[in-house]
Amino acid sequence: MFAAEQVTGPAPIRRRYELTTIFLVVLSYTLLASTPAAADELDEDISQLRADVASLAGEVFALEEDILHPADSQVTVFLTLARKDALTLHSVELYVDDTPVASHLYTGREFAALQQGGVQQLYTGNLPHGDHVLRAVLTARAANNRYVRRESSHQFRKRPGEFRIQMSLEARAPDYEPQISFREWK
After folding, report:
1. CATH 2.60.40 for domain 71-185
2. How does DSSP classify residue 6?
3. Digit-coded pLDDT (tens) for 65-97
4. Which of 91, 92, 85 is CA-nearest to residue 144?
5. Who's near 131: CB < 8 A, 6+ residues apart?
6. How far is it, in rounded angstroms, from Cα 170 to Cα 115?
7. Would the pTM of this model clear 0.90, i.e. be above it?
């Protein structure tokens, strides 16, 4: 069934069959011989396209940040621990003008990073210029193994430009009552 067929018949048909076979062999050889060069060129094109996509993605991210969080109305809240051993932080909730804006539950690794001097960005958002109230609700375990929940508020005036607020947590002996202090950075 699949055995090689012999072409018989008039000479022009046989000649056409021979020419077709030669053409296919030459074409196959040409394609096989040029494939590595074409593949290398294709790989270079793909690498260039990937670099272009990465560059464009960075530009899109920067534009998105400028649109979503313009510097003129941007407010950022950071969290630090003033005393590293007095609290075991469980959660923090933030409210701006009685609207919840951030909530975070801490894992052991996140709390360890804060204990080592880490700074956590809790919230970035936009606020109109004027007076605002930031309220923080803290849930933690004090060094004397009591669970506590504390609220603290901070009034601030948003002016044109970026505005940053640092929240520091501490609990001092002997009662280990958590205290939240706020510091404004301009």
Report:
1. yes
2. P
3. 777 767 778 899 999 988 777 788 899 999 999
4. 85
5. 155, 156, 157, 158
6. 11
7. no
